[in-house]
Amino acid sequence: MNGLGNQIIVIDLRGTSARVTPEAAIAINARPETRFDQIMAIHDSRTPGTANYIEILNSDGSRAQACGNGMRCVVQTLSAEQGRQRFTFETVAGILFGEEAADGLITVDMGTPKFAWYEIPLNEEFADTRAVELQIGPIDAPVLHSPSVASMGNPHATFWVKDDVWSYALDRFGPLLENHPLFPERANISIAQVLTPTHMILRTWERGAGLTEACGTAACAALVNGARTRRTARKATITVPGGDLIVEWLDNDHVTLTGPAQFEWRGSVDPTTGAWTRSEAA
Ligand SMILES: N[C@@H](CCC[C@H](N)C(=O)O)C(=O)O
Fold first, then answer.
1. What is the ipTM of this complex?
2. Where is the binding site for substrate, in residues?
3. Residue 251 in 3-state DSSP?
4. pLDDT of residue 281
5. What is the H or E stretch that residue 44 is in?
């Protein structure tokens, strides 16, 4: 599947005790036909009141706490199977809600953002995480500097720029910043250009996956960072390379993410080795 071009593999492990291994994720990603950004593994529920437990893996085999575009793909898969539109899921980051609307767009309640330095987490104490000391490029003329940082269950840094986000070599800076010592659990790195208070352009280098067409949690982090630095309103269209996402920071502190999800093809996969066969086209 894909969520605005964010390549997602949804693996159904309900009724089994199997887990997708990091080795399987790496093997699946090594094949050009199944290159992906995240795997969303659907497991049986562990907690009453939730439909399923969802485990998330990046293409480098690491496990992620949250994935907004992937959650929309999970909602669409289960909605097509079960004919209902509302779901409550559990992830390692907590309980999430997802709903498919009549127009096919899917909204996921991604929970509440966290801003304290130790919640993101950072390796250094910052009283104010709206602009932290971090820069890349020459010391007296940094290319990117002073990002706002936040956790949407996973760590994000939003670098604000005034000019075109495509004029920055994110493929070069992304890996350096993702692995910067400031981030003990690494981080997702985004460049944001605010066009108006309700419209932002965003590119993201994803932790464990690299450059992506879309990153839902990065869009959520950029919106809350934009709102708390008075750059944006609490609801905005976030244009990512794959298209538009709508993000809203509600009065109850929850952040909702709305966008499409698209089925591509189906197959079978061994969650231990990653060996797969294709069975059905879209
Ligand atoms: N594509 C995702 C984010 C996936 C997880 C991220 N790479 C991480 O390791 O935190 C999204 O749509 O949110």
1. 0.96
2. 6, 38, 58, 68-69, 154, 188, 206-207, 216-217
3. coil
4. 65
5. strand 38-44
Residue-wise pLDDT tens digits, 116-172? 999 999 999 999 999 999 999 999 999 999 999 999 999 999 999 999 999 999 999
Averaged over 9-24, what is the pLDDT?
A: 98
**In Å, what is the CA distance from 193 to each residue of 97, 113, 202, 216?**
29, 21, 7, 16
Residues 140 and 196 in one domain: yes
Pocket of ligand 1 (CB under 6 A): 6, 37-38, 58, 64, 66-70, 154, 188, 206-209, 212, 215-217
Q: CA 48 to CA 44: how far, in whole Å?
A: 11
Please name the residues in contact with 75: beta carbons below 8 A apart, sequence gap of 6 or more: 87, 98, 99, 100, 106, 108, 261
- Asked if pLDDT for residue 242 goes beyond 70, the answer is yes
Q: Which two tokens stand for residue 6?
A: 């964010």
Percent of residues, the chain, with pLDDT higher than 90: 99
226: domain CATH number?
Answer: 3.10.310.10
How many domains is the chain built from? 2
List the domain range (segments joined by +) for residue 277.
2-102+261-281
Alpha-helical (H) ranges within the chain are: 22-30, 68-82, 170-178, 216-228
Statement: the pTM of the whole predicted model exceeds 0.90: yes
Q: Is 220 a catalytic residue?
A: no
**Residue appearing with tokens 């309103």:** 233
